[in-house]
Automatic annotation (TrEMBL):
It holds the Pfam family Hydrolase_4. The chain crosses the membrane at residues 6-27. This is Serine aminopeptidase S33 domain-containing protein. Residues 74-182 form the Serine aminopeptidase S33 domain. InterPro entries: AB_hydrolase_fold (IPR029058), Hydrolase_4 (IPR022742). Gene3D superfamilies: alpha/beta hydrolase. It comes from Amycolatopsis pretoriensis. Keywords: Membrane, Transmembrane, Transmembrane helix.
Amino acid sequence: MTGTVVVRVLLGLVLVVVLVLALVWVFQRRLIYAPDTSPVPAAATALPGAEDVRLRTADGLDLGAWFVRPDRTPAATVLVAGGNGGNRADRAPLAAKLARAGLAVLVLDYRGYGGNPGDPSEAGLALDVRAAWRFLTEGRRVPPGEILFYGESLGCAVVAELALEHPPAGLLLRSPFTELAAVGAEVYPFLPVRLLLRDRFPVRDEVARLRVPTVVVLGGRDAVVPPAQSREVAAAASARLVEVPGADHNDPVLLDGPELVEAVLSLVPR
């Protein structure tokens, strides 16, 4: 192979690498967020006693959400921020169990999820969860000292960031990662994820600055978020750790299982 041919091959490889990195940069949010964009059913059909509510974001979006109250004075109100996939209908079983246990629940759908307008991003989700906070504290007059934050996977990052501005009565983190780049590096070890990533979600660093009662729930065989990362978040937050042996990321026991419900109830102010 002549020197000219070698140079052409190397240039071709460089161009391929540059093209791949450019495509990852442009389309990375399609790899991060996996919303179910289909419209959800009326709240009461999926979650008995629930009502459809609208959340108005600071940048002008109207987001659909579900709010359910128990059949007695609620012991606390839980703001539920879901993971990167699905929509609020997937969190209905958890909300139903929490309501039966005496808690009011607001199930948030981010922009781009569950028929909502907009496209998800770190900055956008921060606006969405603040709209949920305003709905509870201003629209429904819930005292901040009676609000619990529940984050599922990516939602852990969403509520942790909100908690820095509006500390809740308690914080439940289910399968948290240390930062989004750490998960991306696990999934795409051949890419310079930390250099390319626009949405950071630094959960570990944020919870380390919080001083609120915190419980971290994780599955012992989580194939999406390495359990070691969730344990690291728990240590940074000085949180109580609840590990469900043998459970994977989306196993039913981590969606609405008894360990999860009990962990939420343990944070209710006494």
